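If your schedule permits, I should be very grateful for your opinion on a structural question. I have a record of one protein: its chain in single-letter code and its fold written as C-alpha cells. Kindly check, if you would, that the fold set down in the C-alpha cells agrees with what the sequence suggests. I remain grateful for any guidance, and I place the record below:

***
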Amino acid sequence: GRALGHCSCDYKFHMELIEMNDEVAREIPKVVDAGVSSFKVYLAYGFRLTDREIYDAIEAIKPTGVLVAAHCENGDLIDALVADKRKRGELDVSNHPLTRPAMIEAEAIKRFSTIGAALDYPVHIVHVSSEEGLYQVLDERDLGHAITCETCPQYLVLDQSLYNLPDFEGGKYVMSPPLRTERDQLVLKQALLEGVFQTIGSDHCSFNFEGQKSQGRNDFTRIPGGIPGAEERGIVAYDVLVNQCNMNVVEFMKLVSENPARLYGMYPKKGTLSVGSDGDITIVDKNVKHILSKKSAHTKADYIPYEGLTVTGKVRDVILRGHHVVQDGSLRESYLGECIP
C-alpha cells in the first residue's frame, strides 16, 4: 500500500530474513502466497544469520520453490579486522576495503553454496565483486552445486583507488563488498561475456553525502554503506558491455531483463515481448554521447557515484504496460507503477 502511487515503474517485493525461528519458518509460505518471490540472507553485518539459521531458512523456503539469495562476506572476520584497525587508530576511509578483502567474499560464497547444496536447493549470490569470488562460484558449479550470480556496474567502472581521494571524497564509494582492483574489473567483464553471470543489479542503497556519509569522516565504520545507482545501472552496463566489449545486444537484454524476470518469478509477464506479456519497452538512442552527472540525474541523493563518466547510449523513451511514460528523455507520466503479482 505504501508504494502505490509513489513509483514510476512496476515493482515486486523482496524479503530480507534478519532472524530465523519456527514462527518465521511458518510465515514463509504465507509470504510467498502474498506475492514475494525472493528472500535474502546476510552472512555479515548486524542482521546476519548463523550458518544453522541459513540452513533452516533454506529448508523453509525449499517447498515454495522461490529464489534464495545472499550477501556473501564473512561477518566475524570483518569484525576482527575492523577491531584491529580501531586498536591501531587507522580509521580513515582508505581502511574500508582493507577490512573486507576479496577472500572474505570468496569464503562466504563457498559457505552459502555449501548450505544450499546440503539441502539440494539452488542459491543466488548477489553483487559478486572480485576475481576470487567469481572463481569460487565457478568451483561450486564444477562440483555440481546449483548457483546463480549477479554483479553490478560499479564493479566494472570504479576501483578501490577512489577510497584514497582527498577530503573524504572516498566516503561516497563506501559499499560492501567494496570496490576492487582494475584486474577484478577485467575478470568480471570477461565473465559477463562468457555467460557466467545471470543478472546485473544496482545494489542501490542511497545515502546523502552531507549529513549521512559524512558522519564517518573520522571513523570509516560509521559511514553508511551503499551507493545510489538504479538510474545509471542500465546505461553504464550497456556502455561497458555492448560498446566496449562488443557483447551481443540480445545477451545484454537477457542480463538486465529476461534473466531477472525468470529468477524472480515474473516471467513471462515481464522479461519478454510476446503475446500476453506486459508492453514494457525501453528505447535507447545508441548514438548519444553524454556525461553522467548529478545535475541531470533524477536521484534524491546529493551525489551520483558516476559523476563525470562519459557513456554512449541514452534512454530516450520508456513504454510501461503500453503507457508512453518517458518521451525524449523526460518523464511525462509519473507514478503509474504497479505491484507485480
